[in-house]
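Before we proceed, please read the two lines closing this message. Report back on whether the C-alpha cells fit the sequence:
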Amino acid sequence: MKSKTTALILSIFLGGCGVDRFYLGYTGMGVLKLLTGGCLGILSLIDIIQIATGNLRPADGSPYIEMAQSPTQYQPNIQAQPTSTPYDNLEKISALHKAGALTDEEFAKMKSELLAKM
C-alpha cells in the first residue's frame, strides 16, 4: 500500500521526472514523463491535481494508507481473523465424520488430539 502524502510530495518535487508514477506503479507513464520532462510540465500538473483529489490511485488498485499523527501511531486496517476454538474444530470434524468424509479411526484420532488441547 502506498501513502497519498508521499505520492503527492513526489509529484510536486519530482513529478517532471516521473518519480510519482514509478512510485504508484505506472512504469510506462513514469518513463514517458522522464523522457518528456513531464510532457513539458502539463502532465505533472495534472498528476498533482489527480493525486490530491484521490483520482490517481496505485496501479495495483489498493487504497492509499492514511497515516496517524506520527508514523509510530500508525495502525494498519487489518481485520482480525476469527479464531477457532478446539470446541469449534470438534464440531467441524464431527460434521465431517457424519458426512462420511472421515473414517471412525480418523475421527477418533482427531477427536483425541482436540480434547487434549482443551
Remarks:
- DSSP finds six helices and no strands in the chain.
- The radius of gyration is 26 Å.
